[in-house]
Specification:
This protein is an alpha/beta fold and 260 residues long. The protein is built from seven helices and seven strands. The relative contact order is 0.15.
């Protein structure tokens, strides 16, 4: 990189850090006065505040400083409440992008991320569910909390791969989301997040991505659990749908590059 590119790269890193701090402060400031309200009232207010903060930071803020360009497709497929959103996981930013557009949603996260201030806060006061392992003893309270959240009309975001893949390719799915769907009757909303370049991917060693990214967030038609004989059939169908969508995005990206 030449000196100008290097300066811009470090400046983007500084902006990302400032926006991260801003996210923490804004979220707590917006919601702190409502912590003593009833649980339902508090959940609704925190949900709206969270989406507003995420929209400011991740839809408008970072993109305005040359980090990426983002487009959202399939908004007509968004369920307002009581659905399980299932998404591929290639970037560290995936949960933020997804929850910017999913209304009234909690998310299933690894316990290690609950050490981050804003996420720790949301685990304590909202429908963010921390999970340590997939052992039966660890899963029991997670399933109970997820069922309660869905029964209260909240949406739930789950990354069924469990972690970002090293290659960016779609990995195998865990069964939790689909067992929850069959058990509660909640529809599964498949969604994809696709970038034309790796962006905060697991294999990247740099803190700040060096390339500008074009991102597409797409919501696909909901799947009803009663249309499948069991959770395994639902898992397999959802995996095919998401994989097909991602392959289509890859083909589209290749065609765009050839046209250039």
């Amino acid at each position: 990189m030449n000196p100008i590119q290097k300066f811009w790269w470090y400046f983007r890193g500084f902006i990302l850090f400032v926006l991260y701090v801003l996210l923490n402060i804004l979220l707590v400031a917006f919601t702190l006065p409502f912590l003593f309200c009833s649980q339902n009232t508090r959940a609704k207010i925190i949900s709206k505040a969270l989406r507003l903060v995420l929209w400011i930071v991740f839809d408008k803020g970072i993109s305005s400083f040359g980090g990426y360009n983002i487009s959202v497709k399939g908004k007509e497929n968004i369920c307002e409440n009581g659905a399980i959103y299932v998404c591929n996981h290639a970037s560290l930013f995936d949960p933020f992008w997804a929850m910017t557009y999913i209304p009234n949603a909690g998310v299933l996260i690894k316990s290690k991320y609950a050490k981050i201030m804003a996420i720790w806060y949301l685990v304590k006061v909202f429908d963010f569910i921390a999970i340590d392992s997939l052992s039966p003893s660890a899963l029991a309270p997670v399933v109970e909390q997820a069922q309660r959240s869905l029964a209260n009309g909240r949406n739930l975001l789950i990354f069924p791969e469990g972690t970002r893949t090293m290659t960016g390719r779609l990995g195998d799915f865990k069964s939790l989301a689909f067992k929850l769907s069959k058990k509660t009757g909640a529809p599964i909303v498949p969604m994809t997040i696709c970038s034309d370049v790796p962006f905060f991917a697991k294999f990247q060693k740099t803190i700040i991505p060096e390339e500008f990214a074009n991102l597409t967030v797409e919501f696909l038609p909901a799947l009803k659990p009663n249309d499948f004989r069991d959770d395994k059939a639902m898992l397999a169908s959802t995996h095919r749908i998401i994989s097909k969508n991602l392959r289509g995005r890859l083909f589209e990206k290749t065609c765009n590059n050839l046209e250039k």
